[in-house]
Specification:
Number of helices: 16
Mean pLDDT: 92
Low-confidence stretches: none
Shape: globular
CATH topology: Cytochrome p450
Bound molecules: protoporphyrin IX containing FE
CATH architecture: Orthogonal Bundle
Order of helices and strands: HEEHEHHHHEHHHHHHHHEEEEHHEEEE
CATH superfamily: Cytochrome P450
Distance between the termini: 67 Å
Largest sheet: 5 strands, mixed
Number of strands: 12
Strand order of the largest sheet: 1-2-8-5-3
CATH class: Mainly Alpha
Structural class: alpha+beta
Radius of gyration: 22 Å
Helix content: 40-55%
């Protein structure tokens, strides 16, 4: 007899659809609290399980990963933006891409990005100085999006995307909101139908496509002296398999990296600034640590290991507000997890947001306590995923945080606007629903 996992109370026809659309984070937290480490949700005719225990995560992402692929609803929605790419591919197609791209994210390559990260941050801070003098607040969530976009542009594509930063931020917002909207609806109009939402999506995608096409054309005309992700993708050939990427495939990877490489880090930085505003003693700790290590100079790769307090603040931010708040897999064949039946064809969710608040693994889970990361073993911590599909850009993101946060705090004291609401908005990444306007003091 197949044992079904427990399920929170839902509506007869639509199941948990209503709450999923209104408050998916609350639905998952309450589901885990009421039902335990395997929770069954029904969204209309679809069944989805949330697994909320490190053993179950290892089952899905490591031990039995061949049974859990990315032919999931979220991946197919994402494919509308970046087609088949490292983010969305499966099996041999994914493996070939990962093998090709992995060396471009080696620590030694990331070390070469530090100067660029610091330069881009310094340019942003010059603008912030002007705003501070004029007593104008900065919209920090949006500033972080534009900053990480420029960094990705220069580090991965060898291009100065200053002019495009604002337009891409808006276009990406449309793309991500549309994609997430499709994920949480039972019925969607086919992508080709000219509904207003599909038309907005197509227009935003055309803008991003045009920018990427320009980047590819520019590199083809003038191959850069210093290779970058894009030029390496264009020139790459796997020696063993002879696998190369067509132009369309290079475009898919480029868009996937634009998306994965800036939204995630930008949200994490914005959440860090929010938490640092609430916990100014940690802002002081970051300042004095940076002063001791770097003094007045810009940071270098070798310095980053000397900034543990900054790292712990960022790690704790990723615990409380993991940018990838849910990872979805499609179940290929019937399975059993924690004694419960997991049917083939259903969806499976691992939620870092929920796991990072699991009371069995975290003491005072709702509190901001960066010092907990002085200990390095945290079995229920998955901000970057696990197993072979572990985030390829994790070193890059951790380097960005340790350069950007101290550079901001060295120049300014930050203060939130009184009464401004702070609320997470789960789209593909965990955004700030109402942004983060900050007052700056020198
Ligand atoms: C704080 C920042 C970041 C977080 C929290 C984050 C989180 C994640 C997570 C959880 C996954 C695994 C998803 C899954 O298994 O379904 C992932 C995969 C990925 N990330 Fe990141 N990421 C961050 C930054 C970056 C950056 C900076 C880049 C690129 C420059 C990047 C590129 C990717 C790519 C391409 C994948 C897919 C890897 C694969 O499937 O082989 N990420 N990321």
């Amino acid at each position: 007899m197949k044992r079904l996992a427990p399920s929170p109370q839902g509506a007869f026809l639509t199941g948990h659809l209503h709450r999923l659309r209104r408050d998916v984070l609350g639905l998952m937290i309450d589901g885990a609290r009421q039902c335990g480490d395997v929770v069954r949700f029904r969204v209309g005719p679809m069944v989805m399980h949330l697994v909320n225990h490190p053993d179950h995560v290892a089952h899905v992402l490591i031990r039995h990963r061949a049974n859990y692929d990315k032919a999931s609803r979220s991946s197919s929605a994402l494919s509308l933006i970046c087609g088949e790419s490292l983010l969305t591919a499966n099996g041999a197609s994914w493996q070939r891409r990962r093998k090709l791209i992995q060396p471009m994210f080696h620590r030694t390559v990331v070390a070469g990005f530090i100067d660029t990260i610091a330069d881009c941050t310094a340019i942003m801070l010059t603008d912030w100085q002007r705003k501070a003098q004029a007593r104008q607040p900065v919209e920090a969530a949006s500033e972080m999006m534009q900053l990480t976009f420029r960094i990705v542009g220069r580090c991965l594509f060898g291009a100065d995307l200053e002019q495009e930063a604002r337009a891409v931020e808006e276009a990406m917002h449309v793309l991500v909101t549309h994609t997430y909207g499709r994920w949480r609806s039972i019925v969607n109009a086919p992508p080709g139908w000219p509904t207003p939402a599909n038309r907005r999506f197509a227009k935003a995608l055309a803008e991003v496509d045009a920018i990427v096409a320009r980047l590819i054309a520019r590199q083809r005309a003038n191959p850069p002296a210093q290779p970058n992700l894009l030029s390496m993708l264009m020139a790459s050939q796997d020696a063993e398999s002879g696998f190369t990427l067509s132009d369309a495939e290079v475009r898919n990877e480029a868009i996937a990296f634009l998306l994965a490489g800036h939204e995630t880090t930008a949200n994490a930085l914005a959440w860090s600034l929010h938490l640092l505003d609430r916990h100014p003693q940690w802002a002081d700790a970051i300042r004095s640590e940076f002063q001791q290590v770097c003094g007045d100079r810009l940071p270098a790769m070798a310095d980053l290991a000397q900034l543990p307090q900054t790292l712990h603040v960022f790690e704790e931010t990723l615990r409380l507000y993991p940018p990838i708040w849910a990872m979805e897999r499609h179940v290929i064949a019937d399975d059993e997890i924690g004694g419960f039946f997991i049917p083939r064809g259903s969806g499976l969710i691992i939620s870092p947001y929920t796991l990072h608040r699991h009371p069995a693994f975290w003491d005072r889970p709702e509190d901001f306590l960066p010092e907990r990361f002085e200990r390095r073993d945290h079995p229920a911590y998955y901000p970057f995923g696990a197993g072979p599909r572990y985030c390829i850009g994790s070193e890059f993101a951790l380097a960005e945080a340790r350069v950007i946060l101290p550079m901001i705090l060295r120049h300014f004291e930050i203060e939130a606007l009184p009464g401004h609401p702070i609320e997470p908005e789960p789209a593909i990444t965990l955004r700030m629903k109402h942004g983060l306007p900050l007052k700056l003091r020198k």
